[in-house]
Fold:
Amino acid sequence: MKKISFFLSSFICLMTLGCSKQETAQIESLKDAYFEIAQKTEAQSLKGSELTEMLSNYAHEEVVDGNQKIYTFHNENEELMVSEPKDQEGITDVMYTNSQSSDSLAIAHSLSSNGASSLVLNTVDMDKFKTITSKLSEESSNLYNAYLNLSEKMAEDHSLTLTEVQKSINLELTLQEIASDDNYYSFKEADSGDLLGTYVTANSETVHQIVYQNNVMGLLHDTMMADNCIMFSVSTNETTLSNQKEVMSLFDK
Structure:
């Protein structure tokens, strides 16, 4: 009976190890690891030591920053960063970044903030920017459409003036900030609270940055011109893991 019990225990142990290896083998990229970690830590705590074993094929660094132990994994254009409290075991935050030429996409998931997920996209591709932002919010507004039209003009002409902005938006213009180098002008929709802001070079009409903020969806859009290059950005702290997966698939195309 003891022999049967021993062999049964050994079999269960081998089966468990086999399943563990199979699960690890399915992680083909740090992107896959990100979603595996985020979903797993929602159900049960995952220790930093378990993570390093799970990602043993990837080189990693460990540093202590204040009260947090930070694990960073690298693989070509990918980076995975997780944090765990120094005085207790269990990952609380995970962030994944993918950089491709001039574009980058960062996604994060935090158990320490009740499972909050965030996303930040930077791209020089206007079409990619519009496609991805449409997945983050299906709602549209006159102010958002004006933002896209002005961004397209800035990208095509590498030039935009405050007068052109005013002509395209039928709202009152407000001067909010005056700095030594820039003036900040904004337009606000009373009903939705959405805001479009422009940064104008002081003592001129040249617009070098446009921002659009959707307060309902928690989205911040940003179009910036620097060194004759246009960069489009969007960020939000109110996304989901499924939404992140959809955006990541579009970014990888």
